[in-house]
Amino acid sequence: GSLVRTFTPFYFLMEPMDVLSVRGAAVIMNCSAYCETAPKIEWKKDGTFLNLVSDDRRQLLPDGSLLINSVVHSKHNKPDEGYYQCVATVDSLGTIVSRTAKLTVAGK
């Protein structure tokens, strides 16, 4: 009884790119992963998972992309600027992590 493990394709169709934004603009960080079993998509910012459930400005789009509705940026508060990664998980297979994309907010 030999167990045959078939290779299951699991990969990113689209990964986030560096973005230059301005305060108040909407930003989309693209991410889309392919697998027969739909992957669970999460986002990390500066190495920490974002809790998008209780976030009124940031939301996960159906394809896995991250929408930031209105970029917040002031001298002392820069919650959106930083490094983003898309994390896709399929329980039976594991987790893949996208490239790191930098969101920069331009000053006036």
Automatic annotation (TrEMBL):
<feature type="domain" description="Ig-like">
    <location>
        <begin position="9"/>
        <end position="104"/>
    </location>
</feature>
<dbReference type="InterPro" id="IPR036179">
    <property type="entry name" value="Ig-like_dom_sf"/>
</dbReference>
<comment type="similarity">
    <text>Belongs to the immunoglobulin superfamily. DCC family.</text>
</comment>
<dbReference type="InterPro" id="IPR007110">
    <property type="entry name" value="Ig-like_dom"/>
</dbReference>
<dbReference type="GO" id="GO:0098609">
    <property type="term" value="P:cell-cell adhesion"/>
</dbReference>
<keyword id="KW-0393">Immunoglobulin domain</keyword>
<dbReference type="Pfam" id="PF13895">
    <property type="entry name" value="Ig_2"/>
</dbReference>
<dbReference type="InterPro" id="IPR013783">
    <property type="entry name" value="Ig-like_fold"/>
</dbReference>
<keyword id="KW-0677">Repeat</keyword>
<keyword id="KW-1015">Disulfide bond</keyword>
<protein>
    <submittedName>
        <fullName>NEO1 protein</fullName>
    </submittedName>
</protein>
<dbReference type="InterPro" id="IPR003599">
    <property type="entry name" value="Ig_sub"/>
</dbReference>
